[in-house]
Amino acid sequence: MPGQTGPVTRLHDADERHFASDNYAGAHPEVLAALAAANGGHQTAYGADVYTARLQEVMAAHFGAGATTYPVFNGTAANVVSLQALLPRWGAVVCAESAHIQTDENGAPERVGGLKLLTVPTPDGKLTPELVARQAWGFGDEHRAQPGVVSITQSTELGTVYTPDEVRALADQAHGLGMRLHVDGARIANAAAALDLPLRAFTTDAGVDVVSLGGTKNGLLFGEAVVVLDPASVDGLPYLRKMDMQLASKMRFVSAQLVALYEGDLWLRSARHANAMAARLRAGLDALDGRVSVTRATEANGVFVVLPPAVSAELRRTWRFYDWHPDSGEVRLMCAFDTTGEDVDAFLAELARLLDA
Ligand SMILES: Cc1ncc(COP(=O)(O)O)c(C=O)c1O
User: Fold this and answer.
1) Is 208 helix (H, G, I), strand (E, B) or coil?
2) For 90-116, what is the mean pLDDT?
3) What InterPro entries does the record point to (predicted)?
4) CA 302 to CA 332: how far, in whole Å?
5) Which among 98, 174, 177, 324 is most buried, taking Cβ atoms within 10 Å?
6) How many angstroms separate the CA atoms of 182 and 171, rounded?
7) Where do the structural domains in the chain lie, given as residue ranges?
């Protein structure tokens, strides 16, 4: 039409990559191919399809024959559905102050789930039995929300990883108190890669009851799952998933992605690569002779470093990354399955140039 202007937004360059989040990455080509293969023809809706059936088998191979898997759309939902299924209406969740359920889910476990979070500060994002004990009290006191679940994140929001023994200690404590252990596994693949252990070694075999299983950060378009390891720990999960608006009608497309990721070694290959890129970044930062200070252990795919504010501002002309503690200048640098060695080296070279300027 004369006088009408077209769109002005330029679409992105497919070679553009950043260190802001593993969610900035696109979908892995093998996942896209699996989606295309799952397309066409008709399949029963709402999860009674062959891809969701196959997903049950794939997850049983990872977590044991007793595992039951419920695909959902995103990680917040996996956490909310898990915690609701694990707890009565009056229940509470003990978690780290830095837990995603506390910091980044807009209160969804509390507002949508109706559950209280009882938080504990930690030095490194990891709970210990001593830290849990600070909030796991008041059982039988009607004035206190009843602690019913300990929720840990693996790998943690601070880039650290629990060992199987550390998980086992938390499970034993929780079970001894009549509580359950939930794992927010949005980055569970990065933990497995870091530990060089199968998934069940630090979940099923360590006493975990329910896992929020990650997919999106490791190469899916979207899609995560609730994996129930102890069926006696949950109640009403299928109803809760629907009530929480997480029952995909065309579930085959969520399940096909999860199958593509977890059936072979794509999940592990991708996570190992992301971790290796974080290790390369960390080594490069360490080599800057104390001109920047790395603040946390680099065990998975995240690196935390304090940068001079003026340097951060200049770096951001090219690279995106998040402030972690704006007051201290600490930033978070995340690597993804598609981060390249060249990306890391270019970032480090630019950082070194700015520090020298
Ligand atoms: C530890 C952790 N849990 C869960 C999630 C899932 O969140 P979302 O609802 O954005 O998929 C994230 C995403 O950043 C996360 O970092």
Assistant:
1) coil
2) 97
3) ArAA_b-elim_lyase/Thr_aldolase, PyrdxlP-dep_Trfase, PyrdxlP-dep_Trfase_major, PyrdxlP-dep_Trfase_small
4) 7
5) 174
6) 9
7) 29-262, 266-356
Strand partners, 94: 118, 150
Q: What is the pTM of this model?
A: 0.97
Q: Does the beta carbon of 76 lie inside 6 Å of ligand 1?
A: yes
Q: Which of 322, 349, 311 is nearest to 24 (CA)?
A: 322
| Nearest protein Cα to ligand 1, atom 1 | 100
Amino acid at 153: T
Q: 266-356 is classed in which CATH architecture?
A: Alpha-Beta Complex (3.90)
Is ligand 1 within 6 A of the CB of residue 246? no
Distances, alpha carbon 261 to alpha carbons 76, 93, 155, 220, 224, in Å: 20, 30, 18, 8, 11
Mutation pick for ligand 1 pocket among 100, 102, 183, 212 (CB with most ligand atoms within 8 Å): 100
Whether 153 lines ligand 1, by a CB cut-off of 6 Å, is yes
Is ligand 1 within 6 A of the CB of residue 216?
Answer: yes
DSSP-assigned states of every residue in 239-296 = HHHHHTT---TTTHHHHHHHHHHHSSSHHHHHHHHHHHHHHHHHHHHHTTTTSSEE-S
Residue 5 has pLDDT above 90, yes or no: no
pLDDT tens per residue, range 216-273: 999 999 999 999 999 999 999 999 999 999 999 999 999 999 999 999 999 999 999 9
Q: Judge if the beta carbon of residue 215 lies within 6 A of ligand 1.
A: no
The sign of the torsion formed by the CA atoms of 223, 117, 153, 180 equals negative
- pLDDT averaged over the chain? 97
**What's the gap in Å between 278 CA and the centre of ligand 1?**
19
Helix (H, G, I), strand (E, B) or coil at 60: helix
CATH architecture classification, 29-262: 3-Layer(aba) Sandwich (3.40)
Smallest CA-to-CA distance from 294 within 277, 276, 281 is with 281
